[in-house]
Amino acid sequence: MTSRFGKEFKKKFSGAPIILTAFSGGYKSVAYVLDRGGVNDRVEGVFLMDALYDDVDKFQRWIGGNIRRSFLVSLYTHGKCSENMKDLLDRVPKRGIRVRMEWPQTLFRGSIHHVLCDTDHMRIPLAGPPQEPLASLLKLVEIW
Question: Most buried of the four, 32, 70, 77, 102, by CB within 10 Å?
């Protein structure tokens, strides 16, 4: 990274905030970054788009130690992701964590948004809801 952007950006990049995002099977990479990546102090949020197929324990540990300075937003369809998110929500401590079953209008540290969508799985990254969900989420983070 240093060679591409120059030494003056190295410090900025090494301390930059992170929002981990996954669609479908990409959950695996996010789960392992949260579990072993050594960047949890920089993770400001996690955004899953129909992407909690396994590793519920890794997300649970991250929430237990980090959600108060971060957020989690999950779009899901019926099926495995829905079952796993329900399992995750049953496991997390309720004290001080805002759990909402709707798309966030405002993001708060310590919040979890679990959003059911009837969109076809392969269209979720573009059709959401809302349309272009990642761009919509990033607009909410801009005002943070």
Answer: 70
